[in-house]
Design a protein that fits this description.
Structural class: alpha+beta
Low-confidence stretches: none
Radius of gyration: 24 Å
Shape: globular
Helix content: 10-25%
Largest sheet: 9 strands, antiparallel
Number of helices: 13
Mean pLDDT: 97
Length: 593
């Protein structure tokens, strides 16, 4: 490509700014200054004639489901649920005769991407959906709309890598990439208490994990059978039936075992059984009919201050090194109240601007605390939220096939240091693909290795019954944690993750031997997987190597690097790497000259 694609504003009198330029990517912002009420149409790109269009739909447990469209017909991709990836992903890949372009919108609410064939090419329109997100300006006011990024390359993989590398520049520097154990899937709220949590924290510390995170179930009425979803919002009440000594004591006892403390909160939400709804009714978001929407409106100054005070108080009380920030509802078009500092037409717009503000305040006040965003798993994953948090959780389910599906999609636009997903968790609840018992004899060490390796290419954590883990698997997990911390984590911190194959899909569909490459400077981790049903291993071919350079090739087995022969970049790219057997393998490539 010889010219950088230019964003043309859709609104009369709007101004376009280059926020972050790059070699193969650029981020734009549009500012509107004219008084009045405006539909939030951001702008458009004029690109060469398209040959194919690609995107993703998204839902609970179905994140990053691929979809393609013919290039000669109009295409529209949008979300109106109030969560950026509850319905689709704000990302569009456009194949053309001049290369591939990838466009993403930096926004966590409702949005629309559209492709329209024109005489000499294709027009890509980028908009916010107007419901709850109109721009209302008085004379002298201005509004900068959410940013838009576009990247390009000869192939879709190159364009995606350019976009992810570009967006790594907007990602918060943040605290170190800590590893974690999270209590949720094996225990949920029904079986968690002080004894269970601390027993697992002890094992987690022995494994070399760095944070033990208390998920939902710690708050609300002092009853052992209270249900977390209904109690959301009562963060000022600790469930003393489960945690009689309180959170400060629990956090201190966790650290005394050699591991940091973290905690989950769904700070925006208010459950039907929460006392805060009657104690602080002025905080609640409502629809035009006055019906409560189940969350704190952050378009309201009081709502923003309530959230900041709540979360900062939790950090002050526990000295938490990790906050898992969840959001399990669809706000739709947002709050329509007229006493929150916004109008009935821009409630959702103001909510997300308020959310970003609260997160930025917390990051400034507590720079050593990890802020992880989660939303019913992966239903609010976007470049807008990524600019204000350290990590984004990919999905609630995490069986290996599903995890590799989601990872392929997320790597199309986000850096690995901002991605978090666990190897297959032990679910207490029912899910036909999630059932696994790491205490019994059915799972083999090789199967266990494959599950763990699949989740080593980004931030790492586990959600299993550590106290019941089979002894040989417990030892093996410790070896993987050591290898991750010493070899892989430095690459995750500064690298880009590139899928080397087509996308694997759920239920034995898609590419059955997916491979990925995690690259940072002259070091590359190459990961290959063999998913059922499949045949013999095919060669795994790395990309982006210097053809005349020599690379040391090691196989990473737990914490051990096993040297293989040295090879040139040309040989590796052409002949590939050949796994010896099994269903997973990790190689480390290091340039020597």
């Amino acid at each position: 490509m010889s010219e950088t694609p230019v964003l043309t504003p859709s609104l009369t009198g709007a101004e376009v700014h280059v926020v972050r330029p790059g070699a193969n990517a650029v981020t734009y912002a549009v500012t509107v200054s004219a008084a009045g009420a405006w539909d939030p149409r951001i702008g458009s790109f004029s690109l060469p004639r398209a040959t194919a269009l690609h995107g993703f739909t998204s839902g609970w447990g179905l994140e990053f489901e691929p979809v393609s469209w013919p290039a000669d017909e109009p295409v529209e991709l949008e979300v109106t649920t109030g969560r950026s990836t509850q319905g689709a992903v704000p990302l569009l890949a456009i194949e053309t005769g001049a290369g591939v372009f990838v466009v993403t919108l930096h926004w966590s609410g409702n949005w629309r991407l559209a492709s329209t064939p024109v005489d000499d090419g294709v027009r890509i329109d980028v908009e916010l959906h107007p419901a709850g997100q109109r721009i209302l300006l008085d004379p002298g006011e201005s509004c900068t709309l959410p940013e838009v990024s576009i990247a390009w390359g000869e192939t879709r993989a190159q364009a995606a890598a350019a976009l992810a590398g570009h967006l790594a520049g907007q990602a918060p520097a943040g605290p170190p990439l800590l590893t974690e154990w999270n209590h949720w899937w094996p225990y949920e709220d029904a079986e968690i208490n002080e004894e269970v949590f601390l027993a697992n924290a002890t094992v987690a510390a022995d494994l070399g994990l760095e944070v033990a995170l208390l998920d939902a179930g710690w708050f609300g009425r002092p009853e052992a059978d209270s249900e977390w979803y209904a109690e959301r919002g009562d963060w000022h009440r600790v469930n003393s039936a489960r945690f009689p000594h309180g959170l400060a004591w629990l956090a201190d006892e966790t650290r005394a075992r050699g591991i940091e403390f973290g905690i989950w909160i769904e700070a925006e939400a208010i459950g039907v059984g929460a006392s805060i709804a009657t104690e602080r009714p002025e905080l609640l978001a409502t629809d035009p009919a006055g019906t409560e929407l189940g969350y704190v409106c952050l378009g309201s100054p009081a709502g923003r201050e309530h959230l900041y005070t709540t979360v900062s108080g939790l950090i002050e009380t526990t000295h938490a090194r990790w906050i898992k920030w969840d959001f399990n509802l669809d706000p739709g078009s947002g709050c329509a109240r007229d006493d929150h500092g916004h109008s009935a037409q821009d409630g959702l717009l103001r909510h997300y601007r308020g959310l970003y503000d609260v997160l930025d305040r917390l990051r400034a006040a507590y720079p050593d605390t990890v802020l992880e965003a989660c939303s019913s798993g992966g239903l609010r994953i976007d470049a807008g939220l990524a600019a204000h948090v350290d990590a984004l959780f990919l999905s609630d389910p995490d069986w290996t096939e599903h995890h590799l599906t989601c990872l392929w999609g997320a790597a199309q636009f986000l850096p690995p240091r901002q991605l978090l997903h666990w190897p297959q968790s032990e679910w207490r609840g029912e899910h036909r693909f999630q059932k696994v018992d790491y205490s019994g004899t059915l799972i083999t060490p090789a199967q266990f290795d494959t599950k763990i390796r699949a989740a080593l290419m980004h931030r790492f954590g586990v959600s299993v019954r550590l106290t019941e883990l089979r002894p040989d698997l417990l030892r093996r997990l410790g070896e993987h944690v050591a290898g991750y911390r010493s070899v892989i984590r430095p690459l995750v911190d500064s690298g880009v993750l590139v899928p080397l194959t087509d996308q694997p899909l759920r239920e034995e569909k898609g590419w059955r031997q997916p491979a990925y490459q995690l690259s940072a400077d002259d070091r590359h981790l190459v990961a290959g997987f063999r998913l059922p049903p499949t045949g013999e291993w095919e060669p795994v071919r790395p990309v982006g190597l210097d053809p005349i350079a020599t690379y040391a090739v090691d196989e990473l087995d737990g914490a051990d690097l096993r040297p293989l022969r040295r090879r040139t970049g040309k040989d590796l790219a052409e002949s590939g790497l050949a796994p010896a057997g099994g269903t997973s393998v990790l190689w480390l490539l290091r340039r020597e000259n």
